[in-house]
Amino acid sequence: MTAEDYKLRRAGLHAILTMPAEIDLTNADQVRQELLAAVGHDPVLIVDMTGTTFCDSAGVQAVIAGYRLAEATGTEFRLVAAGVLRIFTVVGADQLIPVYPTLEAALAAPAG
Amino acid sequence: MGRMRSALRAYALETANPAEVLARLDAKMQHFEPGALATVQYAVFDPSLDRVHVCSAGHYPPVVAFPGRPAQLADVAPGLLIGAARGVRRPVTTLEITPGTLMCFYTDGLIERRDQTIDDGLDRLCQAVTAQPPDAACAAVMGALVGNQPASDDIAVLMFRRSPADNEEP
After folding, report:
1. What is the pTM of this model?
2. What are the chain A neighbours of B81 within 8 Å (beta carbons)?
3. What is this model's ipTM?
């Protein structure tokens, strides 16, 4: 796992953080740190899990930690999760975090 | 985790409503341990054992096996993890439990594998669970899902079975 796996780029008012292909216990702490570091610089943070094929409970908790910091600091947090949507719905996290099927949909959404 | 378990037990003595127990636990955790996240599956049986009331805080649903039927995931409404947001109310799902029925509760480490989807893991678990004595059911599940492979995450499994009616097989 290298810093190359977490690409943070900007598109207008949006920051987009790309998540790694697999997130589990072995890298969830790193994911959490990357998420926390990405919050607070831009009005909207889009967490892009389009290329993520596996995410376990530790990964979901890392994403929720990022969401909570975003909420506390006034950053709008949007999650793109197609392939790993199931775990977010099974544990109820989709009730908390706005989830979009594609990056385009997340970019096009009106400010919340 | 120890502090959380102690708090949960204290609140369990105060009310029989599973959602209320988890709401109080959530408020306590967010006040004294901000930032902490945890999942809880909380279940209360009626004294008759005919029904069980289940409330989930971000936990995978239990597997239920009625006698002579394939096991399936219980249709428990999802609720948010402990520590995820303030003032959350979680739904309570009531399940009917007939004599001989087995229930299996488990932690994420049992079904999450890096080379499989979550649904694959849940399907394998349902295939391994049958309505039989709990010790045999536990052995079958651990054999099917863990086998002789070292586990990368901790695993907890809790099974119980309502005793079969007197005129049925044990």
Report:
1. 0.89
2. 61, 64, 91-93
3. 0.82
